[in-house]
Amino acid sequence: MENKSKDINWRGVDLNLLVAFSALMETRSVTKAATKLSIGQSAMSHNLSRLRLLLNDPLFERQGHQMIATQRAIELSSTIENILNLVMTQVLRPDDFNSQHYQGTFRIGLTDYAELLFAPALFDAISRLAPKCQLSFCNVDRHNYINSFNDNNLDVVIGSMTDLPKELESQYLYTEDHVCLFDQSATGLTVPVSLARYIITPQALVSPDGKLASPIDNQLQEQGFKRHIALGSSNFLTIRHLLKDRNLLCVVSRLMAKIDIFNDNLTQCKPPVDIPDFHINMLWLRRNSTHQRMEWLRQIVSETVTERVASLRGKSEAR
Known about the structure:
CATH superfamily of the largest domain: Periplasmic binding protein-like II
CATH class of the largest domain: Alpha Beta
Low-confidence stretches: none
Number of domains: 3
Number of helices: 12
CATH architecture of the largest domain: 3-Layer(aba) Sandwich
Order of helices and strands: HHHEEHEHEHEEEHHEHEHEHEEH
Distance between the termini: 75 Å
């Protein structure tokens, strides 16, 4: 089938010409149409000339004080009104996002930490407000999260990423600190844990990259000390299960220590070493900042994470 679109002078197609046509159909007067559009009469006359050339038809012919539409103009009138209405409602002023009717997929990138803490709460909140949607959680880390936005078409990412590239925007969610987590009976440790006991107690390390060392070891080395890393795992759940009934200690984030999927009665306390806090942020592509579906999702994620953090911290204070 022959493609005739290549024969069209697309450079001559101007949305303003359709607006001018609509005004002329309504007023049947170059002067009144110009007034309606707040432009000069000569500019309106120029628009009419361009329309006639583009559509190869006189469109409007003067009879006395009125412009009479040709048959071609009458036939085009409803089509052009539909085009202008579509541009107005779907392009320039899209309808507000209706979560109750949305049947698409929300894709959220989560670090292991964020998924363990927030996946159930996010599922509950989003599926309640958007019952027809699908929800996809994608595991990300500080090394792959940038590529994951495009490779997995992510809407948002939650994690402790810093030094963001210019194509990403972020929103601060909360600040997390650390605690020592251990089985008091198996380790013989008492609270507070002294630096001496901390160093001689075998330790487990949550290590996403597989390294059996962290900045804590550098700090200890500067003070002339060295701890024994007995185990490393990228999965916090593995380490959490291992701590029960074993002579192991692990430094973890405070909220991870408080999640309520365990009933292991492990003890937690402030570490005897200085460990910097870290910030949890929500990230998204800058180019999608004003999309209504994205704005809705970011609001729900922010509210849900804030409520979940408050709930976990409330349990901590109640104990």
